[in-house]
Amino acid sequence: MKILLDHAAYSPDFKTPGYGQTSALASFAGKTLLEAQISLLLYGGADEIVVLLPKGADKSSFPEGKQIRYVYLKKPLGGGGSLAKVAASLGGFLFVPGNLLPCLDFSRFYKAHNKGDGFLTLFAQPKPYPEAEDIALSPDGKHVSAIMPKGADGRADFNYQNLVPLDLCFVSSDLSETFDPEEEEAFPFHDGVLLPTVESGLACYYSSPEIVHRLDDEGLIPAEKDYLSGRMEARNLKNPQRAIFLDRDGTINVFGDYVVRPEMLTLLPFASEAVKKINESPYLCICATNQPLVARGEASLAQVNDIHAYMGKLLGAEGAYLDALYVCPHFPKEHFHGKGDDAYLISCSCRKPKTGMLEKAKAAFNIDLTKSYFIGDTLQDVQTGINAGAHPLLVTCGDPRPAKKCADAVPEATFSTTLEAVEYILK
């Protein structure tokens, strides 16, 4: 796997930091930033790392190894121009701007890129306070249809998935071949490569809860802390993860509101704090919800997705986010006698208390379900946790009839609120 690490784009010399305060030679965790970046890239599975540097840089201070190659550019070309200069010689590769410190399982990212049909696969992930970030829009959950900049007019007036893009992406050989290495034109990656690819409909995205520090925004100290503590490597999906799964109705939002439109959803007063505590812990925060109203024809899947975008917006405004959300839109046809959507009126493997949604999350994020928890407001949720081999916890802040299904299911513990259940786990 080839990786292009660009330290030439904005740093024509190493006296003036190129990305905020993060030049390649910046002091970082007892070494240089470049050394730390290369160590994490190798840990993630890099076979070959090509480092772009400005002409005149002193190679004696840089890490050596058979997997590392240095390319020196005569002049700063910006991220796009730097990429264009060497892309044709690399074919397909992962592009890493020098202001990023990523710790990813590149094999998973690469597999997602190969499954897509894009010239470029962008890394994007949920973040707290997404209103302060650019947002990647993806109506189909696969392609990026647009990058909506922070502060854009009208942005507050509609619901969008909490999907924050970073200029970190797999570039296919098809895209590489469109560049002329002889031109040496200076242009930025974001405006000159990413946005045109998105506008052409040839950009996909990959989302992961792994840690990528954007050093120009946050500085080096938070990244150093995560690097030295081992948190970055622990969150790498090469390693088994733990998760706290949450039901939706009665666990995150108020039970009893028959939610068929976004504005009908109200967060429980403690929900954001509970989710935020999970975000700050070693656990992933994942919602798994039955939404049979799709099968019953009471709302479309697109409308349910809009409801969840609104929920994510409410959580994000309070500094909380879900790492992932899984929906079962199905309902057994034999139990429904009205006119619904036959595509979803089926017996499936994902409707709780079956474990399909949790198994999908397990595969996507390498989750050890035996070290994970499921929090819900019904014994059906409890049975889901039991069936998956996770630790089931019941909360009484939701459904007033929690035992109407799976009445024999026994939780490990019962709590008044989702927050109390989360605090119990984190103790």
List the main descriptive attributes of the protein structure presented here:
427 residues; alpha/beta; seven-stranded mixed β-sheet; six-stranded parallel β-sheet; 13 helices
Number of helices: 13
State the oligomer: single chain
Q: Structural class of the secondary structure composition?
A: alpha/beta
- Shape estimate: elongated
Largest sheet: 7 strands, mixed
Mean pLDDT: 92
Please count the beta strands (DSSP E, at least 2 residues each).
19
Overall helicity: 25-40%
How far the N terminus sits from the C terminus, by CA atoms, comes to: 41 Å
Strand percentage lies at: 15-25%
Largest beta sheet: strand ordering: 5-4-1-6-11-8-12
The low-pLDDT segments are 11-21
> For the CA atoms, what is the radius of gyration?
23 Å
Q: What this model shows, in words?
A:
With 427 residues, the protein is α/β, with parallel strands linked by helices. Strand 17 (373-376), helix 12 (379-388) and strand 18 (391-395) form a beta-alpha-beta unit. The chain has a seven-stranded mixed sheet with strand order 5-4-1-6-11-8-12, sandwiched between helices. The chain is built from 13 helices and 19 strands. It is elongated, with a radius of gyration of 23 Å. Residues 11-21 have low confidence and may be disordered.
